[in-house]
Amino acid sequence: MVQSTNNSSVSRRDLLKAAAASGGALAAGSISVSAAAESNKENLPPNVADWSTSLGEGVDTNPYGKPSEFEKDVVRRSVRWLTASTESSVNFTPLHELDGIITPNGLCFERHHSGVAEVNPTDHRLMINGLVEKPLIFTMEDIMRFPRTNKIFFLECAANSGMEWRGAQLNGCQFTQGMIHCVQYTGVRLKYILEEAGLKTNAKWLMPEGGDSAGMNRSVPLAKALDDCLLAFKMNGEALRPEQGYPLRLVVPGWEGNMWVKWLRRIEVGDMPWHTREETSKYTDLMENGKSRRFTWVMDCKSVITNPSPQAPINHGKGHTVLTGLAWSGQGTVDRVDITLDGGKNWHAARIDGPRLPKALHRFYYEFDWDGSPLLLQSRAVDSTGYVQPTKDELRTVRGTNSIYHNNGIQTWHVLKNGEVENVEIS
Ligand code: MTE
Ligand code: CO
Fold this sequence. Notes:
The protein is mainly β and 427 residues long. The chain has helices at 12-21, 140-144, 173-176, 190-197, 222-228, 277-280, 392-399; strands spanning 25-27, 30-32, 89-90, 111-112, 125-130, 136-139, 148-156, 180-189, 205-210, 220-221, 230-235, 238-239, 249-251, 264-270, 285-286, 292-293, 302-307, 319-328, 334-340, 348-349, 351-353, 362-370, 375-383, 412-415, 421-424. It folds into two domains: 105-293, Oxidoreductase, molybdopterin-binding domain (Sulfite Oxidase, Chain A, domain 2), CATH 3.90.420; 302-424, Immunoglobulin-like (Sandwich).
């Protein structure tokens, strides 16, 4: 019963019929379904719509542009009961509302340990000290005089999907997978800054430290810093947002978000890791054999179907359906994504569309003809190293259920007959 658009049996006529059946408005060759619920019939053809009868707002009404008011629900959201205060808390990217691979700046999820530091860039300094020939203090202007680079990377909090270790919990990919964003960073390679200070021969580790009152810090192996870490000052072309570490953040491609220190004020160079709070009492996974996993830096290959999903049900009824989602790997690119509609009995190759960049989000699509019966949707990604995204049960076999971090298990969405979608698990 499952057909892709390549199959000529799904014609444009079927698409139009489906839209008509769901009450969607038909305009020449295009379908407007989503607005149907709230549409004002007076605005529909053959009438002239309200917005076509008068002048609109002039230029400069919004010197800094903002989305249409009809998009007001496309926002980051938090889960109130998760944390005791908003200053040490998290909110989530509305993945189900987005397309392509870039997260708009105002929708990047936020994770702060002591709120957003309000840093005046003129007074901001980056200090390099420890095992260096020449301890240095840089202004923002100094940093911007190094050769710049532009790179697109995802940032995923290691706690993303952490609430799902013991079973399906939250209804919406915004909440279950939304501790991720992907933007284009402009910055300079950390390697150049370290070379300027001159590394001593026994230098092996770095400790980046944030300028927020939490002074968040982590130990980063020198090899990673020299390989691909950046000091970023722009995201998607404009200055970093305060929430994302304005004016300077560390970018640690493919590695857990906790290491991407925001409001970066200092980097100490040492010969051993520091065993900071964030890498001992946090970001360590207790295993059932009494041991623990630490320094689990890489974010392994993962994917999620963003539409349909609990916050994005199928509203159009039976017929041609566009399924889409995101896949990523901290090890490189994503080679393929497979989709099942029946809980893993049959798998179909999804179409990855758009840039396929290492350590960046990949966008996939799968078009099919929904016959109106319940579905169990899953996506499974395979990365360029051949690593296959595991099921949640496969993860639990190795890691038990005491973990919080690094849950990259396959997500299941149960599509009901009426098009509603629920977060479920199948074994
Ligand atoms: N850096 C500082 N200085 N303070 C913080 O609280 N939170 C970390 C990391 N860097 C944090 C920080 C965590 S746990 C994550 S997941 C990411 O920043 C979140 O980045 P974002 O707010 O841009 O999404
Ligand atoms: Co985090």
